[in-house]
């Protein structure tokens, strides 16, 4: 027996909702019921309790995505499962598709080493502060970076302070004395040893990360691997990722070759040589690099946030490793799994065409301004007219708010957001901030749909 769903909506959206459901041809049966409210987004759970007299034999009730109130309490009162649908009706097919394919993003198999690159120049308190920041953003190991020809008198104290707080720590240097000091101080990993410095691994318990003795020398790396395997000691190998135009493609080939020669060993990739040394947004770079790691079973990466444009690198890597793990496990493309790395674009930025928005505008009978976007531009409308522009300043003469500065300020903010969304190809929802994915902490400040929004400046007036 198929599931029966009840869709609750408002008068303006009822026709469109019925049309979308008809085109979907869903496996479930359904009833569409409008609650006598013009705008579906204004429906609340309390309103549903007062107005809904019949649940029409539904197994589930789907309410508008922006419906405010306690859904759990509503479900308990009605004795039926209640769910918020998508914010936009056009997303309904995707909503039900997602419901059938839930991805677990709690799992991953790539460890992130987050490097504090200037540790010799900062104090213990700042080192611990940065470590906590990196851990919050997904780091598993805090890498203490040494600097060439630079004294680091507080290295041991820094490592021990981190260890006392439960951090896993690596020390990063090409200087043997630094590595030996770090290992004796309690570092868990040493970056980096090569064929002629393997003796350090005999002096300390830390796990070494092995690199070629000279750049691109895989033969020396093979010999170092053989020595460590002979001692039955754990180790990790880093064939070295090179920057673009300085051997990047060849270095990817090296990683592939090392994996082919040694199918079972642990490998590390230092992704910072790409994210730091390429002036482009890093979210896509991290997605691609973590995809390569997924294909080659590379389970350690070294990430840095030195350049300001790479200031979210650890957080992006954390999201990317989870997406790639889910995609690989489900044997699917890394699409429609999570949108956090879609900082500048959306998979479906313009859910409605200009004609559909104009049709909606024709049903408006009040003076409140609505703002929507389509591929054709920014649309501003109320009962008195429908206007389209690509520049908000062109819409200014259409606004009858000369004597209402609060309303004018509100519309200015919303039109500016709409212009940015239209230019970049992002989803615009009036009265909501633009969603920048993991690129902005403000994206995490989502609307609490359990509470009721207080009246704004214009409503108070």
UniProtKB/TrEMBL annotation:
Domain of life: Bacteria
PROSITE patterns, A to Z: PTERIN_BINDING
Residues in Pterin-binding domain copies: 93-334
InterPro entries: Dihydropteroate_synth-like_sf, DUF6513, Pterin-binding_dom
Any single GO BP term: pteridine-containing compound metabolic process
Pfam family, one: DUF6513
Coiled coil: none
Protein name as it appears in the record: Dihydropteroate synthase DHPS
């Amino acid at each position: 027996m198929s599931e029966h769903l009840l869709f609750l909506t408002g008068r303006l959206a009822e026709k469109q909702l019925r049309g979308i459901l008809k085109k979907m041809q869903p496996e479930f049966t359904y009833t569409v019921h409008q609650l006598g409210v013009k705008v579906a987004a204004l429906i609340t759970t309390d309103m549903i309790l007062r107005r809904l007299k019949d649940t029409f034999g539904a197994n589930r009730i789907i309410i508008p995505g922006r419906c405010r109130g306690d859904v759990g309490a509503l479900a308990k009162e009605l004795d039926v499962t209640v769910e918020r649908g998508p914010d936009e009706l056009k997303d309904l097919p995707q909503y039900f598709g997602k419901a059938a394919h839930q991805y677990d993003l709690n799992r991953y198999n790539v460890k992130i080493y987050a490097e504090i690159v200037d540790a010799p120049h900062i104090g213990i308190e700042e080192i611990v502060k940065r470590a906590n920041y990196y851990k919050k953003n997904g780091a598993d190991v805090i890498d203490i970076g040494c600097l060439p020809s630079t004294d680091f008198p507080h290295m041991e104290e820094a490592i021990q302070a981190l260890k006392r707080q439960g951090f896993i720590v690596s020390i990063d240097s090409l200087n043997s004395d630094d590595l030996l000091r770090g290992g004796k101080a309690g570092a868990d990993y040493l970056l980096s040893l090569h064929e002629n410095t393997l003796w350090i691994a005999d002096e300390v318990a830390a796990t070494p990360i092995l690199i070629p003795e000279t750049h691109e020398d895989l033969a020396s790396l093979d010999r170092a691997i053989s020595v460590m395997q002979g001692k039955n000691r754990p180790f990790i190998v880093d064939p070295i990722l090179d920057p673009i135009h300085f051997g990047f493609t060849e270095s990817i080939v090296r990683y592939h070759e090392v994996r082919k020669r040694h199918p079972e060993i642990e490998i590390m990739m230092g992704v910072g040589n790409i994210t730091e040394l390429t002036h482009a947004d890093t979210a896509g770079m991290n997605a691609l690099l973590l995809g390569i790691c997924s294909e080659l079973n590379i389970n350690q990466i070294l990430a840095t946030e030195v350049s300001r444009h790479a200031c979210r690198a650890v957080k992006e890597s954390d999201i990317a490793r989870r997406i790639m793990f889910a995609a690989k496990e489900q044997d699917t493309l890394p699409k429609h799994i999570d949108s956090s790395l879609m900082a500048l674009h959306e998979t479906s930025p313009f859910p409605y065409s200009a004609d559909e928005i104009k049709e909606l505008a024709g049903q408006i009978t009040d003076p409140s301004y609505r703002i929507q976007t389509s591929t054709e531009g920014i649309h501003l409308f109320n009962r008195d007219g429908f206007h389209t522009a690509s520049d908000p300043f062109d819409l200014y003469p259409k606004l009858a708010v000369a004597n209402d500065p609060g309303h004018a300020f509100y519309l200015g903010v919303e039109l500016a957001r709409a212009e940015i969304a239209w230019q970049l190809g992002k989803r615009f929802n009036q009265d909501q901030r633009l969603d920048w994915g993991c690129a902005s902490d403000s994206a995490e400040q989502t609307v609490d749909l359990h509470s009721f929004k207080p009246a704004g400046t214009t409503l108070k007036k």
